[in-house]
Amino acid sequence: MKRAFAFALLWFGCAAAVAAPNLTNPSFESANLGRNVWLYRPTTITGWTLSNNSGACNGRSPWGSRAQDGQQYCFIQSAGNPGRISQSVSGFVPGQTYRVRHWMQNRSGSAANQIDVQIDNVSIGTPTAGYAGIWIEYTSDWFTATNLTHVLSFVGQSTTNDFSCILDNVAIESGPVAFGPLSNTSFESPDYGTGRMYDNPKGSTLAWTFAPGSGIANGFTNVGDAAALGQQYAYIGQSTSVSQPVGQLDPTKEYAVRFSAVKARNTPAQQITGSFDNLLFNESSVPGSTWSEFATRPFEPTATEGRFSFGGGTVSAAISLIDAVRWFETTPLPLTNMSIDRGAIVSGDLDSLRQSDDQRLVLKPALVLQATDPPIALTVSGHAPSSHLDYIAVRLEGFASSNGLTAKMEIYDFEDGIYLDGGTQLVRGTDRVTAIVHTEDSNAFVNPLTGETRVRLNLRVVGPLNTADWRYHIDRVAFSIEEFGGQN
Predict the structure, then answer these.
(1) Is there a domain that residue 3 lies in?
(2) So what's the pLDDT on residue 206?
(3) How many other CB atoms are found less than 10 A from the CB of residue 199?
(4) 361: β partners
(5) pLDDT at residue 414, as a whole number
(6) φ/ψ bin of 146: left (φ > 0), alpha (ψ from -120 to 50), beta (otherwise)
(7) Which of 387, 246, 421 lies closest to 329 in space, CA to CA?
(8) CA dist 82 to 54, 112, 162, 249, Å?
(9) pLDDT value of residue 272
(10) 338 and 325 co-located in one domain
(11) What pLDDT shows up at residue 158?
């Protein structure tokens, strides 16, 4: 069975879309004005407020010959007092992305008329009606909802010239679901256009902050061929960052992040880090030449809000692409058993491993008679409520009183009956978190009969020791999962 381990590994899942908001009377059909009737600022167009030089038409009129959908349409005239058509729309989900679609054409005999599409008076697009007699559909930039209700407006732009256009069949389209507290998770807002890339972009609809050397690209560009999800993706250069403020967190819970990544075309690979404020919780995601999904180890925030950041590595000229970011809550598992396979306990017990609280399990090494023997070997088990997992992570926090040691973690595969290598790290003289994160075939790491999940730690001497009488201090061992189909 194919397995892959690292601090961030392949996951499976599909982005979904939330239901569209409740736009009322999108084609202006209610109330019926009567055949070939047109009016400035009628108050009977259900759901809409028409003000200044705007109005509604039914059938043939001086503004147009027919509707794009149904019988009625609206016009926006920009002469002197530009027309405005607006509606207060409910049903938005804060944190989700949306965009506006509408059909438009020029008034016959009028110069091309540009309008401003706005959400709460903030522009999300300024389309220009191109032709008279030909309906064309226009699409706004993506924007991120911040409330349950927002005001959608179409506003004329010219205050001096008599430019006019007609408008019909308005729709609000939802983007991919933004899991957790992050917004614009697929970098679709604003829409920069196919083949374009922008370094250090700025704007309220971005949600993300881009350091110089990072930015957004759309489709085939100098750095990438296509997005993993949607049309756009972020890029991160050497020692740069992409970050976003995060709120509504619970410091008593633990979270992790999933994301798609690939190295840019014709550039070296680099490490991608993940951090929350100053807490680094992802160190070893190194994407290859095709899009792959990665997952960080879990972390516990110390406050209800902070800043989440992706960081580029230190490899010269390296660029990484990121897309489809997913923030999710993980579930900690109870520890059930511990065995010391090599070495001996100086102090502490299984309870010492349950929290990161400096109540430590302290181990001393066994006498090593063969080079293959680890001086310390420890096995710890936890209990999972289900074997239907989408994610499993194991973290060990500890330090040694000597240099010259490595810690190797292995997770037990109950399907194949073997331990699988989860990586080896140098042991430091201060606390360091060693972690295994796995999402592919996660069910294999839970005993389907008992719910046991198991990890083994081996310490080995790889260099000169400061002292022969060294100790290994373990503060915490933690198993965390996300069950398949978990809500985030």
Answers:
(1) no
(2) 82
(3) 15
(4) 474
(5) 94
(6) alpha
(7) 246
(8) 8, 14, 9, 44
(9) 93
(10) no
(11) 78
Task: Examine the domain organization and report whether 478 and 344 are in the same domain.
Answer: yes
Pull the structure tokens for residue 196. 């374009």
**What letter represents residue 20's amino acid?**
A
Closest to 174 measured CA to CA, from 223, 239, 217, 230 = 230
Token pair recorded at residue 442: 């996660």
- Position 251, amino acid: P
Helix (H, G, I), strand (E, B) or coil at 425: strand
Cβ atoms of residues 80 and 139 within 8 Å: no
Report the domain count for the chain. 3
Domain hosting 423: range is 334-483
Q: Which amino acid is at 196?
A: R
Query: What is the dihedral sign for C-alpha 108, 110, 116, 121?
Result: negative
Return the pLDDT at 7.
Answer: 31
C-alpha–C-alpha distance, residues 388 and 134, integer Å:
54
pLDDT of residue 44: 96
Q: Is residue 17 part of a domain?
A: no
pLDDT-flagged residues of the chain (< 70): 1-19, 175-180, 204, 283-284, 484-488
Identify the CATH number of the domain in which residue 115 sits: 2.60.120.260
Distance CA 479, CA 435 (A): 10
Residues 480 and 437: their CA atoms lie apart, in Å, by: 9
Q: Which residues, listed in sequence order, are joined to residue 452 by a DSSP beta bridge? A: 383
Over the range 43-77, which residues count as b (16 or more CB within 10 Å of their CB) and which as e?
eebeebebbbbbbbbbbebebbeebbebbbbbbbb
Burial class of residue 488 in the structure, from the number of CB atoms within 10 Å of its CB (0-12 exposed, 13-18 middle, 19+ buried): middle
pTM of the full predicted structure?
Answer: 0.63
Q: Which of 66, 70, 60 is nearest to 38 (CA)?
A: 60
Let me know if residue 19 belongs to a domain: no
How many Å apart are CA 35 and CA 41, to the nearest integer?
17
For 412, other C-beta atoms within 10 Å of its C-beta total 20
Residue 324 sits in the same domain as residue 203? yes
| Segment 105-158, tens digit of pLDDT | 999 888 778 899 999 999 998 998 877 888 988 888 878 787 889 999 999 987
pLDDT of amino acid 180: 57
